[in-house]
């Protein structure tokens, strides 16, 4: 797993601003939903297939309780995209892994940056990509050596173990970073 690549192997890289398709903001929660196929999200199968690239965005501006907010937002996306409810234990475990990784990424933004600015969740084929942006200057890395019995320092180790890949994207001249992680649907 890597923390230095700006995007995963074979990926086109981060989408330019506004390139994720049509969007329809929901003003009260700072939520935006987009689908690569149409302005309304296409139905998805349990593996997240069927509608092309689908995306949801949550802005955390002036929000409190951001970790549970992010988990609830992600859970709603998983239901909308057919990852939940799960038909099998493996599918349930995959959805729980997504929720755990969201919690870890948002918590790290709270603890080590100035809090999260935004959560972007995209689903394309059998991969969920989570991106949390913040204004922090630090570089997230798993603590090594990892000491399972000690409190703290497990967040990025968990992300590294559960994800297909993860990394950090920085935009030159812009404060902060975007930490991303990708998880796959069960076979």
Features:
alpha+beta, 187 residues
* Strand content bin: 15-25%
| Spatial shape | globular
SSE ordering: EEEHHEEHEE
Helix content: 25-40%
- Please, what is the average pLDDT? 77
**Broad structural category:** alpha+beta
What integer value in Å does the Rg equal? 16 Å
- The total of beta strands comes to 7
Total helical elements: 3
Tell me the distance between the termini: 21 Å
Major beta sheet, strand line-up: 1-2-3-4-5-7-6
* Largest sheet report: 7 strands, antiparallel
Low-confidence stretches: 1-29, 34-49
What is the secondary structure topology, with strand pairs?
Elements: E1 22-26, E2 31-35, E3 54-59, H1 66-80, H2 89-112, E4 116-124, E5 127-134, H3 155-162, E6 165-169, E7 177-184
Antiparallel strand pairs: 1-2, 2-3, 3-4, 4-5, 5-7, 6-7
Helix pairs in contact: 1-2, 2-3
Describe the protein in words.
This protein is of the alpha+beta class and 187 residues long. The protein is 25% helix and 25% strand. It is built from three helices and seven strands; from the N terminus they run βββααββαββ. Strands 1-2-3-4-5-7-6 form a seven-stranded antiparallel beta sheet, with helices on one face. Helix 1 runs antiparallel to helix 2 (89-112). The longest helix has 24 residues, at 89-112. It is globular. The two termini are 21 Å apart. 32% of the residues are buried. Residues 1-29 and 34-49 have low confidence and may be disordered.
Nutshell version of this structure?
With 187 residues, this protein is α+β, with helices and mostly antiparallel strands. The chain contains three helices and seven strands.
